[in-house]
Amino acid sequence: MEKKIALYPFLPESQNFVDEEDIGLVDLLENPRFASARSRARRRVKWSIEKGRIPPAENLDKELDRHSELFSYILSRLIVSCIKDDYLVKRYALSESKTFYSRIYRETSLEVKEIANSLGIESAITEQDFIVSLVDYLKSSSPLKEKSWKLVNRKIKSGKVFLTEKKFRRMLQEVVRKKIEEDLPLDVPDEVQSKLKYILEDIMQTLEKRESKFELDFEGIVDKELFPPCMNKIVSDARASRNLSHTERFAIVSFLININVGYNKILDIFKSSPDFDDERTSYQVKHIAGNHSENKYKPPSCETLKTYGICVSPDWRCDRVSHPLGYYSWSLKSRKENENQD
Ligand code: SF4
């Protein structure tokens, strides 16, 4: 088996290899030959929940390790499908795509072009750039919200978009993430689910631990129930691994800073985001927080948030405020008053 098949198991070549091997599900789930694939599949899914990436693979020089790597991917998808949890699907797809990105970094430009081709993205290479069709660019980069991905910031000529190699690899990461996410969950027969029971229980527990960690971390400081609908929506989107626009990021970070949520807790919210970059996000949060309380940024007003389409599902309180912070202090005050009456 070529190394590429094990490293990029979602490519059609890998799928063809699996089909030709004609290995039954029962073998995959019970045969001792696939024990290491099963154990790696479990770690693959666990790491995606706990760390947002999958564990590093063996060096894959041995045929046996390549087999295990490829079939661990097949089994991981079965595991994720059995759990039927949207958050897990998103988180798993994101983790696989991040690993893909780190792996293609070791490939030559020509190999990257070939991989892109297998993913359905045709490209041409010049000395400095990768060139793709406008349609492929728009289709692949739409979830990427940073300014640099906007068409006005890209060189375009005769319906073709020019990208640096780094940008092109990043765009491919997005293609992989979307592909994995859209293909899941698979329809898994009950018999398979019961054979995977011991792994599924372990994964469910990991998932529950992460959920409760997030809730506790967050609720220890502020109560999300007091947030205005717009801010609640941004937090939920970040938790569901949806990329946030620059304005959404600015709005939620400045909002949280102004209600005294700590810097590390704010970073935690962004960790599920497909675009999460520790260094860059830390810098942005610190910048918005300012060095002193008097130069920290305030979130935009309701009027501005409306123009950006960030004002969603306004409720009765929204009719009487002009700023998300006004909403929060009002709901906080009302809660205190109610508590005092009890
Ligand atoms: S009215 Fe203001 S506080 Fe309410 S959802 Fe819209 S932007 Fe947020």
Explain this structure to me?
With 342 residues, the chain is mainly α. 62% of the residues lie in helices and 5% in strands. It has helices spanning 3-7, 12-21, 25-30, 35-51, 63-83, 86-104, 109-118, 134-141, 165-183, 190-195, 197-219, 229-239, 246-258, 263-270, 278-289, 302-307, 324-341; strands spanning 123-125, 129-133, 155-157, 160-164. The longest helix has 23 residues, at 197-219. It is globular, with a radius of gyration of 23 Å. The protein binds iron/sulfur cluster.
Unreliable stretches: 216-220
The biggest sheet, with number of strands, parallel, antiparallel or mixed sense and barrel status, is: 4 strands, antiparallel
The percentage helix is 55-70%
Query: How many DSSP helices?
Result: 17
Gross morphology: globular
Known CATH architecture of the largest domain: Up-down Bundle
The total of beta strands comes to 4
**How is the largest sheet built, in terms of strand order?**
1-2-4-3
Quaternary state of the chains: single chain
Give the averaged pLDDT, no decimals. Answer: 87
Bound molecules: iron/sulfur cluster
User: What structural category arises from helix and sheet content?
Assistant: mainly alpha
Q: Whole-number radius of gyration? A: 23 Å
**CATH C-level class of the largest domain:** Mainly Alpha
Secondary-structure element order, N to C: HHHHHHHEEHEEHHHHHHHHH
